[in-house]
Design a protein that fits this description.
With 319 residues, this protein is mostly beta strands. It is 3% helix and 32% strand. One calcium ion binds next to loops.
Length: 319
């Protein structure tokens, strides 16, 4: 284990699996600690396990760079060449541990949420969307080409604000591709236009899932399965509700209750009941009976989910 930052204390880490060479899986580790009450150290490492020994393939250190990390690491093939890259909210690494791009020159700093997906199917490749925490420039949210970090649009406001949450999903079929939203209104990502002119009417930017079998995404917000209806837009606290999970024994999935929900599975929502949660075990599972058309990948077949979470029991080969 690299000891570069050991004098500053233990490093907390998050892990994922990536096919960095397009062939064999590597363990990718995000490792971070703090220099007293000051700056943070950040290091990425990649590891290969051959069945007997664990070998460190490379390490990347941020040093004094301004590349911003967030609360999620995305391991995803950004350029479609079959080899995974590693993305943070403000930069991306190539699979060999070199810096691919940084969004620092675009003014991106730390934020709590970002998403990478084919937000605009008419534009080749993947796009990214992120939100900002206390950006001194007033930047609230931004949308960019995920392959090379090309900034496509930004929204700024007066003063400094902690946006906190942001979400990307196709919830309005009138506009091609996905919508993105935080607290500045509901936008179609591709066009950078409000899909709902009243910016006080939008879902809460939390989590998404497919539940009722149609082409657009449903929403999972604080234990409620909700659906955005563009024809009857509502404020975030009164969206039409499909299901309240607490009626089935799950605890209310507020922020402090994580990991009550690990959702975004296909038409399945899982939660831990209050009683079982207190025992620290068992999951409850609630599945939709709505027919699914067209068929979609299950959670364990979705590359981004699989590469950024634990392997399901019994998984073999490339996944
Ligand atoms: Ca790639
Ligand atoms: Ca695209
Ligand atoms: Ca849409």
């Amino acid at each position: 284990m690299p000891t570069d930052y050991r004098p500053d204390g233990p490093m907390y880490a998050r892990f994922g699996v990536g096919h960095l060479d397009g062939v064999a899986p590597s363990l990718v580790a995000f490792m971070k600690n703090r220099i007293g009450d000051g700056d943070f150290n950040l290091m990425f490492t990649a590891w290969r396990f051959d069945g007997a020994a664990l070998t460190n393939q490379w390490k990347w250190k941020r040093g004094n760079g301004t590349m911003a990390d967030g609360h999620n690491t995305r391991i995803v093939d950004l350029d479609g060449d079959g080899k995974d890259e590693i993305a943070e909210i403000g930069f991306a690494l190539n699979g060999d541990g070199t810096l691919r791009y940084s969004l620092a020159d675009e003014g991106v700093v730390h934020g709590d949420r970002f998403h990478i997906a084919d937000l605009d199917p008419s534009r080749p490749g993947l796009e990214g969307y992120g939100v900002q925490q206390d950006n001194p420039s007033g930047l609230r949210e931004y949308y960019y080409g995920a392959k090379d970090g090309t900034m496509l649009w930004q929204h700024a406001g007066d003063g400094v604000a902690d946006v906190g949450r942001g979400m990307a999903a196709d919830i309005d079929p009138r506009f091609p591709g996905m919508e993105v939203w935080s607290f500045s209104g509901l936008y179609n990502a591709r066009s950078n236009r409000l899909t709902e002119p009243d910016t006080s009417l939008a879902p809460w930017p939390q989590l998404g899932l497919w539940w009722d079998g149609d082409l657009t995404r449903e929403l999972l917000n604080d234990g409620k399965l909700e659906k955005w209806d563009p024809a009857e837009p509502k404020p975030s606290n009164s969206l039409p509700r499909l299901l309240s999970t607490w009626n089935y024994g799950a605890v209310n999935a507020s922020q402090g209750q994580n990991p009550t929900f690990v959702g975004d599975m296909r038409r399945v929502s899982s939660g831990v009941s209050g009683r079982e949660r207190s025992r620290g075990r068992r999951c409850g599972c609630r599945a939709s009976r709505a027919p699914s058309f067209p068929p979609r990948r299950t959670r364990v077949a979705e590359p981004c989910v699989r590469r950024c979470g634990p392997a399901p029991r019994g998984a073999r080969g490339r996944w």
